[in-house]
Design goal:
globular; alpha/beta; Rossmann fold; binds magnesium ion; binds adenosine monophosphate
Length: about 325
């Protein structure tokens, strides 16, 4: 029954999508991290549509997506040498840099800040589209504010199927986690958000990076809010999942584990993120697995902390923020 609607909305036709953007419409865009809701950076009305559709608070700035590193100066200025080094090393890729903004970048994009977040995405369709346009795209993740980021065109349709004219289908996201965000304060690099590039990989290029203190009050990045990336279902993070299963009073249980299937006497719905214990594979599967569990009307989703190394840090960060207060 839904298939008809999806058929009209989900497209692989770049031209259709390009024309929609030029006309001031917004579209869903595939990237290697998660799907975004994209608007012409210079169209106030299109940017407004993004905020409205996402129900995103106005204090939350958007990431600007550009076609290539060589046009960074159109968006940002006073670029620190270390930022340049990171752009040269990781773009196109899942690294967002927060830099001084150029005057022409509208305040609405940066939520009134003097800085702008910018990256070159590494997805063939996103790059083809950006290269065909003469404006950058502002694109936050294509989900209602605070909920799980979409990693496929179908996820976007679950959230917005009647409210978007086009979802550009680029297949499942190859990384499945949002970009890592690095800013500069007094020329010193700061981590604003853990993401799809592990912090140690970035530190190998520019040396130690300070981690920005989390604060719910006017956060530097909303990804730092203590509740974000969250399913509707309650989540429990515990050291030993089996212990929780033995003790718990719930009827319908979901289990999200890294490597192992958990045996249980009662029926549970399990998602194992990487049987071979590969954190990158686990990262890629995380949101899709959470989405599936969240669709099942479970009483609870039980999980445990992932190894606190590499992308495990990002996964743990997202799981902690997925807990209901
Ligand atoms: P999303 O695209 O929904 O994953 O969210 C974009 C992230 O980039 C949010 O956490 C924003 O707060 C962050 N961001 C965008 N612009 C800035 C900026 N100027 N300074 C700090 N963080 C930013
Ligand atoms: Mg988001």
């Amino acid at each position: 029954m839904h298939a008809r609607k999806y058929f009209f909305v989900i497209t692989r036709d770049l031209n259709q999508v390009k024309n929609a953007l030029i006309k001031g419409d917004i579209i869903a865009l595939p990237t290697e991290t998660v799907y975004g809701l994209a608007a012409n950076v210079y169209s106030d009305s299109a940017v407004e549509k993004v905020y409205k559709l996402k129900m995103r608070p106005a204090y939350n700035p958007l990431i600007v997506h550009i076609a290539k590193p060589s046009i960074l100066e159109k968006v940002a200025k006073n670029i620190p040498a270390k930022a340049r080094e990171l752009a040269d090393t990781f773009w196109p890729g899942p690294l967002t840099l927060v830099l001084d903004k150029q005057v022409q970048i509208p305040d609405r994009i940066t939520a009134g800040k003097k800085t702008v977040a910018v990256r070159v995405p590494n997805h063939p369709l996103a790059l083809q589209l950006l290269n065909s346009l003469n404006f950058p795209l502002a694109a936050p993740s294509a989900n209602p504010f605070g909920s799980i980021s979409p990693t496929s065109a179908e996820h976007v349709a679950l959230y917005f199927k009647n409210q978007l004219n086009f979802i550009l289908d680029g297949g499942p996201c190859s990384l499945g986690l949002e970009s890592t965000i690095i800013g500069f304060e007094n020329n010193k690099p700061m981590l604003y958000r853990h993401g799809a590039i592990a912090l140690d990989k970035i530190e190998k290029v520019i040396g130690p990076i300070q981690i920005k203190n989390q604060s719910d009050n006017k956060p530097s990045a909303p990804g730092m809010l203590s509740r974000h990336y969250a399913p509707k279902t309650q989540i429990l993070i515990i050291e030993d999942i089996s212990v929780a299963l033995a003790q718990n009073p719930y009827k319908k249980i979901g289990v999200l584990s890294f490597q192992k299937f958990i045996s249980s006497n009662t029926e549970i719905h399990q998602e194992v993120l990487s049987i071979s214990g590969d954190l990158e594979e686990a990262a890629k599967n995380l949101y899709a697995a959470l989405q599936r569990l969240d669709q099942m009307n479970l009483d609870i989703i039980i999980t445990s902390i992932f190894p606190e190394k590499g992308l495990g840090k990002t996964i743990n960060d997202r799981l902690k923020r997925a807990i209901k207060d």
